[in-house]
TrEMBL record, chain A:
Compartment(s) where it occurs, according to its Swiss-Prot or TrEMBL record: Cytoplasm
Identification of the protein by name: tRNA N6-adenosine threonylcarbamoyltransferase
Top-level taxon: Bacteria
Entry-linked InterPro entries: ATPase_NBD, Gcp-like_dom, KAE1/TsaD, TsaD
UniProt keyword list: Acyltransferase, Cytoplasm, Iron, Metal-binding, Transferase, tRNA processing
Name of the gene: tsaD
GO cellular component: cytoplasm
Domain Gcp-like: 30-313
TrEMBL record, chain B:
SUPFAM superfamilies cross-referenced by the UniProt entry: P-loop containing nucleoside triphosphate hydrolases
Any single Gene Ontology cellular-component annotation: cytoplasm
Lineage: Bacteria, Bacillati, Bacillota, Bacilli, Lactobacillales
MF (Gene Ontology): ATP binding; hydrolase activity; metal ion binding
Species the sequence originates in: Dellaglioa algida DSM 15638
Location in the cell: Cytoplasm
Keywords, alphabetical: ATP-binding, Cytoplasm, Hydrolase, Magnesium, Metal-binding, Nucleotide-binding, tRNA processing
Domain of life of the source: Bacteria
GO biological process terms held by the UniProt record: tRNA threonylcarbamoyladenosine modification
Name of the protein in its database record: tRNA threonylcarbamoyladenosine biosynthesis protein TsaE
Family: Belongs to the TsaE family.
Amino acid sequence: MSAEKKNLILAFESSCDETSVAVVEDGHIILSNIVATQVNSHKRFGGVVPEVASRHHIEQITSCVQDAMTEANVSYDDLDAVAVTYGPGLVGALLVGVSAAKAIAFAHELPLIPVNHMAGHIFAARYESEISYPSMALLVSGGHTELVYMPEEGQFEIIGETRDDAAGEAYDKVGRVLGMTYPSGKEIDELAHTGKDTFNFPRAMIKDDNYDFSFSGLKSAFINTVHHADQLGETLDRADLATSFQQSVVDVLAEKTLRACHEYDIKQLILAGGVAANKGLRARLEADMEKMDTVEFIKAPIKLCGDNAAMIGAAGYVEFLKGQRAGLDLNADPSLEFDWIA
Amino acid sequence: MNIEVNSVEETQKIAEKLGQLVEPNMILLLDGDLGAGKTTFAKGLAVGLGITRNVKSPTFPIVREYREGRLSLFHMDVYRLEGMGGADLGLDEYFNSDGVSVVEWSEFIQDELPDDSLRITLLKDEDDDNRRVIKLDSYGSQYTRILEQLVKKNG
């Protein structure tokens, strides 16, 4: 009796600040997931960010591959495919992962699987549960806020997105006004659990008959409120500011997502992306979704909400099974996005 | 040159007119505080270039490309590069690829910018949250010419 063949995928992610390499078994078991983040080493830059330069990825990627292979305790002969994020992201950063993945695929004669970074975020949820279709995903991060409808496996259609700032970006910019270090989403989330919604910031587009979002007006309202108080020599309660801000973000995200869940015939709602780690948002959607017993609510595991290669391995596995392959001429596509629903 | 505006719509109208005038390889530096309306301005500019896609904030990805208009628009935001510059990012490749480059928070990569450009500064009003002064400064004859055309167009 022979053991069932397992599929092992070596996955790469380098679209933005994180250099990450993972080994994933059958698309849902993490054997290793090495993430070299650039955020911590750059906190000295006055609360702003990380090095996104490709040089940093180049310095990290080889040791990430070695660590991922060692920790997974596999050899190149054990691998079945190489998966890589080819967009969206910063072209110089993406190219580091794409080049490394190509080199390994070529050297070890392995199929190369191109993965959309956003599909990766959604498939982080695969480590929580199997995904059944049709399903809906709320994808919230520093660079994205969108509702994605998935009629079947491997198909993604945007039904609505932010018109201006992503939710995560609004968190970071408001955090800067409050003198917090980057990224400030977690700190605002924690503070938001200690205050009251006293400022009643705008809930942009909440009643609009579409699935789009807008967080630029909220950001401006917040900045203006703090600025006017400064002018008058008043100090506003930071906890109340954080609570009011978060309440506005969560109200809009939850209300529009819920409406989408009612209007589309879906089996699951998936919460994914960096902001999916926000406790306020998780709790709110959990409470709301409890009332909808026809739709299962799946949250990406908190430790896989940020950028990482394990999620790319999960999304890559689906493409692998479907026979999706890239040639060695695969290029980075900085503007890659899902299709819009017609 | 200074232009006073009293609403988001007025800002976008000015930007749209500028978008109809800009030429290949032009660089527009877009400065102003958080919430001053830099991305709003870029949206208007995109309309003027004939871009129909929604222009979103480029803060996180640093560059967003829009290639379907009269000219390609490369919308950059180097906010996240404060204190480190953008030397390794290859932004200069965008500057010379026949499109129009818009750079938000350009002060953070000052050393990597070409000498000639149009600097657009959005100044918020201390008392009126909707009011802005749009300050336009040209560096280089081609940008001075564009500004003169904008004045005519703006009546």
